[in-house]
Amino acid sequence: MFKKILIANRGEIACRVIKTARRMGIKTVAVYSDADAQAMHVEMADEAVHIGPPQAAQSYLLIDKIVEACKATGAEAVHPGYGFLSEREAFPVALAKEGIVFIGPNPRAIAAMGDKIESKKAAAAAKVSTVPGHLGEIGSPAEAVKIAEQIGYPVMIKASAGGGGKGMRIAYSRKECEEGFALARSEAKSSFGDDRVFIEKFIENPRHIEIQVLGDKHGNVIYLGERECSIQRRNQKVIEEAPSPLLDEKTRKLMGEQAVALAKAVGYDSAGTVEFVAGQDRSFFFLEMNTRLQVEHPVTEMVTGIDLVEQMIRVAAGEKLALKQKDVKLEGWAVESRIYAEDPFRNFLPSIGRLTRYVPPAEGVVHGGTIRNDTGVAEGGEISMFYDPMIAKLVTHAPTRIGAIDLQAQALDAFYIDGIQHNIPFLTALMQHERWREGRLSTGFIAEEYPNGFAPPAADGYGLGILASVAASIDHLNNTRRRHITQQMDGQPFSFAKRRVVRIGARDVHLEVTGGGDGPIKVAKVNGDGAIGTPIEVVSTWWPGQPVWTGTVGGEEVSVQVRPVLNGVHLSYRGAAADIRVYTEAEATLVSLMPEKVAADTSKLLLCPMPGLVKAIHVQAGQEVKAGDALAVVEAMKMENVLRAERDGTVKKINAKAGDSLAVDAVILEFA
Asked: How many helices (H) and strands (E) does the chain have?
């Protein structure tokens, strides 16, 4: 077994590999760019080597830098993680020349499967069902349009060397095909150093299901069940689960056997993933094979009990698989949410900055289930514009699918992040979505269910009661605390009931609050006729300053995120969030007479929706534009975002140029 390995990656996956290596008694070496000098993976590793500036093309993608780091530290093997050099055939070849072991598949398998065009040819030869498409390279937008029209719209334009949703566009028309071809090539070049793209038929209302395979260097290959990754946005997976609610045992076996046959055909010898697009009728077609560890591998680990990183290391060291196909059992259900640095209220645009607060939920066994959080950041760390926007992967496991979903919702409620925008409000709300909970999925789920973008659900019914009760209990606690500090009434809580008006947005909830001190706080609703409803107990050990209120409301366990605002608190629960203020009845009457502030009019400005780099300005001063016309392209976190005109108008002034780095809400141009 290896004594020391180097991880040629960063972030959460580098930390994930280090954890397993440490458990196996293997020392680790981290590599880092200027932007990652203080990163968690650097701190966790036994040694760390600086490899260059922040840009991946000048650091993490330079093979010679990784080889030099191995030589300098005596690392015997390299784990590539995912992304970066993980599917670059030249990487294991270069390592082998220096006597360094690659913890991944052999170069021949990477060449055969890592290139999406070649992998489809290999799959067809192995009699695996494939999606109709054009497998050759495409040189121009005109050629792309010609091929797309032969196949029939809609089509998928995909980077040959791509992954993670980068370099991928769906086109429903000639115009979208021309534009998507250019954007896909540009993103592919930026992310992978390879601008080749291909086109295939886009199957509508599909499901994305993948089979985890594991092979050794002695010809043994097994499959470890499936993962469903249908909840996607812009072709980027957001939520994954194992197993799939679609498959039955017969289909699982058929897909698994095809995946194993393909892996054996190319001599595959590590952990890998064979991806399929599946119809609602359980028909399936080969998409691609990822010759690396997948981002979503934790859900497979949770339902099988198999550490995939450990298996990769053992296989690379020449060991035979200790597992047979009959040994693989799927136990329970696992759900993974990807926590991204992006703003769900601005169409999920990237967000960068410092994590001023980062308090993830506690890991471990909870109510018969398990919470796991794979992350590469800590409080005070920075989310950089140079890399993928992932903050963490939150995984829950329970005996049933609904149990795993409910535990995921609870864990998301307790996941507190400040300093940047993030997608936790969206993920938390999605966990309550009826269609998701019923397993009626497709890759178009988010676009279909949120056609106008995500807006937080209104606090209503049960959720409104939770927020009102928690706000009232916080106010009650604060008042008691103030009396202790000022020694009013010897610091004792009032013995009589207190009427309160809890203002949640534009809604008022009238409550009567009693108790406190050494006993539970009791909250009862005051009806319009003045009648008092049945009191419920609100119990918590929360204290001012804690970011998450955890306790029980009417006997139900809840977690509510708490942020102070002027004269109140901002509470969020299950995706619903609001500024909440608790008044006496007299205060509520007076506050209602105060005038409301009117927001400034920005309708004549094109504002930068995210921190990013201006790649292009497509208009000039005095030019007339139509709704939908491209105005500018802004790149952030390796994704190019086209900003379009929302209405017809005339450009008055250009305030930015290509190459400018802009902050959120910076004015790019003005309209007359």
From this structure: 17, 40
